[in-house]
Design goal:
The chain contains seven helices and five strands. It is of the alpha+beta class. It has two domains: 40 residues, no CATH class; 129 residues, Beta-Lactamase (2-Layer Sandwich), CATH 3.30.450.40. Strands 2-1-5-4-3 form a five-stranded mixed beta sheet. The longest helix has 49 residues. 24% of the residues are buried.
């Protein structure tokens, strides 16, 4: 008696289950048989490779992100340095047009406020009472005042400068950071300061470079030397 369709399907299902069981029992041999896998059109992926790939990709993406961030930071730094140098060069050309020491101080202050967004740019010098005059527009410091503000023998000071608040008497906002650079005026025995004030606590910090500010100090010294301190 012939088997009906349902009996044939049941037999086929049982044969497949038996065959599938044998495959599972021999899975290591099947995975190792590259020719068989190739003929079947399948590809074996070792489990640990599947687990490793996302982690490796994540590390690669993280490294790329760090590289991109570092590159952007370098580009921003280069751009900022270039802009600062351009502004400094423009300021130097402006200072060279000064007609006297008073005009020099005015131009420096205006450039500090306009070009650099600071509160003030000030020139100051030590003045002995009754012996020497301070140029108009400059701030007077007592003898020994430069060392008191910078520290004896120091050339620069950047950062919080509460002792230097008197150097900036005409600022509208509190001075939260400043840059002080020693200068020598007319004679080495008469020290002075080039000073910049910022309302931003991070406007000047001890970690900042002083090359451009130092350059402005040397330029200011030489321009001031054109005229005697009368």
């Amino acid at each position: 008696m012939d088997k009906g369709p349902e009996s044939q399907n049941l037999s086929t299902d049982l044969d497949w289950l038996e065959f599938r069981g044998k495959m599972l029992a021999s899975r290591e041999r099947i995975v190792a048989d590259d020719d068989l896998l190739d003929r079947l059109g399948v590809k074996a992926i070792v489990p640990n490779v599947v687990e490793f790939f996302p982690a490796a990709l994540a590390r690669l993406e993280a490294a790329h992100a760090r590289e991109q961030t570092a590159r952007q930071e370098i580009e921003s730094l280069v751009k900022a340095n270039f802009e600062a140098q351009a502004q400094t060069n423009a300021l130097v050309l402006n200072l060279l047009e000064s007609r006297n020491n008073s005009d020099l101080a005015r131009r420096l202050d205006e450039a500090a406020k306009g070009a650099f967004g600071l509160q003030a740019g000030v020139l100051a010098c030590e003045t002995e009472v009754g012996e020497r005059r301070t140029p108009s527009g400059w701030e007077a410091l007592p003898v020994g005042g430069v060392d008191a503000l910078l520290g004896e023998g120091r050339e620069t000071r950047l950062g919080a400068c509460y002792p230097a608040r008197d150097v900036f008497p005409n600022t509208d906002l509190p001075v939260r950071s400043c840059a002080l650079i020693r200068i020598s005026l007319w004679t080495e025995e008469r020290p002075g300061l080039l000073a910049f004030a910022s309302a931003d606590p991070e406007g000047f910090t001890p970690s900042m470079g002083v090359e451009l500010i130092g350059f402005l100090a040397r330029v200011s010294e030489r321009i001031a030397a054109r005229w005697p301190c009368l």
